[in-house]
Amino acid sequence: MDELRKSSKIAIAAMKAQSERLRVISENLANVDSLAQTPDGSPYRRKVVTFKSELDRATGLETVKVAKVGPDRSEFLRRYEPNHPAADRDGYVLAPNVNPLIEMMDLREAQRSYEANMAVITSSRAMMSRTIEMLR
After folding, report:
1. Helix (H, G, I), strand (E, B) or coil at 25
2. Less CB within 10 Å around the terminal CB: N or C of the chain?
3. How far apart are CA 55 and CA 58, in angstroms?
4. For the chain, what are the domain ranges?
């Protein structure tokens, strides 16, 4: 029974980490068109989630946590929009370094990971219930 509880705790930690990842992906997608406002300004910069493995000393379990949410340092995109107020002298505006296709793939991966961990919790609870039922 204790092992089933431990597996649920590991899955819950993973679900929390994936929830944070989903939030960041949503923020990136929401800002895909957030251009710079001035010629020397910067547009929205994509954010990425970094995970870390953490030991829970009380239980001895190795779980996953969000280490940090940081900026993606890849280059901004450039769009030719000479009439935009943030256009440089050549008519280009800096655009976010967000690729919606990549964000959607990351979103799907995070969703599948979340669902897999939910299945672990559901199975663990069902096994615990059946074990308790057998012991009665």
Report:
1. helix
2. C
3. 9
4. 2-135
Q: Which residues on neighbouring strands pair with residue 48, listed in sequence order? A: 70
E strands, the chain, in order: 47-56, 61-71, 77-80, 92-95
| β-pair partners for 42 | none
pLDDT tens-place string over residues 76-134: 999 999 999 999 999 999 999 999 999 999 999 999 999 999 999 999 999 989 988 99
Residue 100's closest CA among 48, 35, 32? 32
Structure tokens at 88: 């440089």
- SS3 of residue 13 by DSSP: helix
CA-closest candidate to residue 83, choices 75, 74, 73, 91: 91
Instruction: Answer whether 72's CB lies under 8 Å from 24's CB.
Output: no
Instruction: Output the pTM of the full model.
Output: 0.86
Task: Enumerate residues 6+ apart whose C-beta is below 8 A from 92.
Answer: 78, 79, 80, 81
Please calculate the CA angle 29-33-39 and round it to the nearest 5 degrees: 140
* Cβ proximity of 61 and 112 under 8 Å: no
